[in-house]
Amino acid sequence: MIRTPLQETVETIRKNFQDVMKSLESCKSFQSLISSSDVLRSEFAAIKQVADLRRLQQPCDSRVVCTLIGSSNHGKTTLMEEMFPDLHTWLITDSKDATAQSLRLSFSTNPSAGNQEVTITSWDLNQIIGLVEAPEAKEQNERSKIRVSCFEDHVEIDGTDASIPPEEMKKFKFPRKIEIWPFAKPYPVSQAERTDVAFIRKLTTKQEAHLASTDPLLAVEGKSYNILQLRTVVKDIALQGRFEQVKGWAGAEDISNFVFVDTPGLATSGNVKDEVLMHCLAQKSSQIVLQLLKEDELDIIIHLVLCGEASAFSVLSRTLERELGIKALDDLAERMILVITGTHRYLVNPDLMRKWQSGPARVPAVQESKWFVAQEQNKLGPFTWAQLKDMVSSGQVQTSTMLLREGDHQWSRPWSRPGC
User: What's the confidence (pLDDT) of residue 362?
Assistant: First the structure.
């Protein structure tokens, strides 16, 4: 939590910085100076980019945005339910691919969970286009013959002639051609909807085909949206919680300025539950983080990885590097916390149990291994150690030659090791 004196100091610095920038931009002598120097002009342009950041255009409110990311079924929503038990109705953990939407949780002093305001906000048209035309989605859509058309006010996804395996197509329930329209305004969830478990499940989870309804779930300014359209158009669902559990864990007097964001799972491939939108929605979690960074609204990122499973973080890093440059990854690294969850699996998962019970794998001795030889940019072999020694004796190989042990990835010079 940022203390009030520090917040006031930061706000004073911010205002002074903005005042100085405005003065320099209107100062004729300074403008004349930078016009005569490419270096100075470039440096000032970089500083102005910082001054134009959305966060620096607004007063310092000491808010801290913390986002949880990770692959599907790695425990993000389960962790959020532990942190915010008063919001358990919205944090559904008893189904796979539980999170179909980004849930944005902020603090509320209202003691009644049923009376908390809930607001659904959509992407704007440009953000929707960024999602459906992300290079990864575009490549997969072209391969699957799914056409994406962008118009002045909406996007159309047409899978009429899609080359999708018949066994998957049989599970599809929604039309093959779907229009995606941004909301005309945020949608305030009614009190009846806030307590309707069926409504919440349809909105926030990816239900199995036999449970999914193609009927409209809600309407904004006369335009109806079914659950598949909502998975694409919704930017986030804003919830309010009391943060009592988190406050107790943190041992802090006040964490009311924290905002927590739960995201859909990072995906390396499309989910058949998303039907013709499968390739677009595989990129949604990356697009959420990208937009938070672009709007300078991401202070801490918690990357959850389930013990014994691979991380899909490369999906996110590719997007950020492409859109924001390599420096964005360095910036992200300073904000990231890696959390390994589910360590109990070492006690219940047979494959993981075998790994730790058998101890570390024995690395074969040099003489027992087979080796590849690097010679004139060619990779020769593999050879036994005895064969290599004969090659050294005949002058075919030098003791300075680089070798690669079979099964390894790094070349080395093992000749000087004891016993060689």
Answer: 58
